[in-house]
Design goal:
Strand 1 and strand 2 form a beta hairpin. The protein has 137 residues and is α+β, with helices and mostly antiparallel strands. Strands 1-2-3-5-4 form a five-stranded mixed beta barrel. It is rod-shaped and about 75 Å long.
């Protein structure tokens, strides 16, 4: 059991160093085998076989789920790339000044023809460089 915990820790450290999101499943399988071995006494060949099956199972099931949840990174910063997006006001936007809006995962300078308070959901209607013109949804 302690050997499998050590193997799991080694796999997790390797995952941290490589950030491949591949090795973590082997660490998870090792911890699962350690938990199973703490309940039932298994022969080493069964432990190794169980480790291989669990690692493959975790890899196939969880990696597919995590890949689906991946957020698309902003790669297009042209003057129209954010028009139509939804944002959330983070700093009050007075009708005659600037505030801040959070769009996707980035803070932008915001302008509007009306007063907008923090927490207001807005739609981007125009983009001028790093300044977004917003309106209430």
């Amino acid at each position: 059991m302690l050997l499998w915990i050590l193997i799991g820790v080694i796999f997790l450290i390797a995952e941290i160093l490589t950030t491949s999101f591949f090795i973590v499943f082997f660490g998870l399988a090792a911890f699962t085998i350690a938990a199973i071995c703490s309940i039932w006494l298994l022969q080493l060949p069964m432990q190794i076989g169980g480790f291989a099956v669990l690692a493959l199972l975790y890899l196939l099931v969880f990696r597919r789920l995590f890949k689906k949840r991946k957020v698309k990174a902003v790669t297009d910063f042209s003057d129209t790339s954010l028009i139509g997006e939804i944002g959330l006001i983070q700093e009050d936007v007075p009708s005659s000044g600037y505030g801040k809006v959070l769009v996707r995962d980035t803070y932008w300078r915001a302008v509007s023809n009306q007063n907008l308070g923090k927490g207001t959901k807005v739609k981007i209607i125009n983009q001028q460089n790093l300044t977004l013109e917003v309106q209430v949804l």
